[in-house]
Input
Amino acid sequence: MIGLKKLYGVIGDPIVHSLSPAMHNKEFKELGIDAYYHPFRIEGKDLKTAVEGMKVIGIDGFNVTIPHKTAIIPLLDKIDPLAGAIGAVNTVVRENGLFVGYNTDGAGFVESLKEDWKKDLAGERTLIIGAGGAAKAIYYTLLSIGVQRVDIANRTIQKAEALISGQPYDADSKALILEEAEAKIGEYSLIIQTASIGMAPELNKSPISLKGISASAFVSDIIYNPAETMFLKQARQKGAKTQNGLGMLVYQGALAFEKWTNVKPDAARMKRTLTNILGGSPC
Ligand code: ATR
Output
């Protein structure tokens, strides 16, 4: 007897450039899981109807991307506490008929960091650059796993201050303007770049100069296209270890995949799938 194919997907607007369908469908195939992952372009005005529709037609889980990560929260049956604190959901899982919202962006980042840096993160003096949605997911997740000393630098300092004052952990964080971060960059052993700067057409732009970094620092940029931003190039030239955002993309997907199927996917293979699509070598 043929079983019922499981259906997954991603909702967002725009959605045509999402790499998630290729990544998940390849993994379903490799693991012999009878499932299909489809991209759905859903406009904001249709979000409620779309979520209700997905419930009714029996979708087993889906990812949520821009611009719906926050707006979807009141439309779900249950929210995981960390996703609730972050105020954004990127993964929905059907559990006993209910849609439960999770955030695997921050945890995906941490997984990729552990893979590439192999350090106990707790004691690291950390700087996050940027104070948008991605920064918030990473900041809260780092605090939730006990990383204590995380500062945030942002062009608009009020947004960094708001992230810090809103955090529900007992963290010792400071908000910095970009110039201040640049001046004391040598004090940080972990530097995480989350600002949307350094992509085409502004490939030669960086939020700050890394002239003063320590050669033993680890520098992460969550951008993955280009594979090496100016920011990462400068870090590498200073002798620092670097990673781009491909690992975060892979692991946020791998964590979602595991929640949906209870099967741990092959993250290295998922990364190769993405690297092939992007046409470069993994960084
Ligand atoms: P995401 O969800 O990817 O984090 P976002 O919420 O729009 O995106 O946040 C974008 C971040 O990039 C913000 O921290 C933004 O700084 P502001 O808060 O000052 O707007 C930062 N950013 C974008 N362009 C920048 C630039 N040219 N220089 C420095 N920071 C920049």
Summary: The pocket of 2'-monophosphoadenosine-5'-diphosphate is lined by residues 130-135, 154-156, 159, 194-197, 207 (CB under 6 Å). The radius of gyration is 19 Å.
